[in-house]
């Protein structure tokens, strides 16, 4: 399964406050992403890492990454986290609209250099 990682430029020293924001995250009801009524993608897992002025959200998924971005853009819990993170960002993120969220998501993507999983071994 592929992984994606997106970065956030944050103010250092606010790990506790940011941890509390993610501690109250409202999960989506289903990991299934649909396009035109058909399942196209699944979000398998997410994790958030933080150190100093960098935060990274890692997403494990199967399917299409742009479907993941569109799905996340429409989720109330994701929108709530983005709003709550705003005071802790050193660089604002335009995530108030689906189009802005998707553009920000794509700009924030890290390039995956390698990915190895025991699940891929035969």
UniProtKB/TrEMBL annotation:
- In this protein, which residues make up the domain named SchA/CurD-like? 1-117
Classification from the root reads: Bacteria, Bacillati, Actinomycetota, Actinomycetes, Kitasatosporales
Name used for this protein in its record: SchA/CurD-like domain-containing protein
Mind telling me which Pfam families this protein's record contains? SchA_CurD
InterPro entries this protein is in? Answer: SchA_CurD-like
């Amino acid at each position: 399964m592929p992984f994606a990682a997106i970065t956030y430029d944050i103010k250092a020293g606010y790990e506790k406050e940011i941890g509390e924001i993610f501690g109250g995250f409202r999960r989506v009801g289903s990991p299934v992403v649909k396009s035109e009524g058909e399942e196209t993608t699944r979000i398998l897992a997410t994790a958030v890492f933080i150190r100093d002025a960098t935060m990274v959200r890692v997403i494990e998924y199967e399917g299409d990454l742009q479907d993941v971005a569109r799905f996340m853009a429409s989720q109330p819990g994701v929108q709530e986290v983005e709003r709550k993170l705003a005071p802790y960002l050193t660089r604002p993120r335009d995530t108030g609209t689906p189009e802005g969220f998707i553009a920000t998501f794509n700009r924030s993507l890290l390039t995956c250099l390698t990915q190895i999983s025991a699940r891929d071994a035969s």
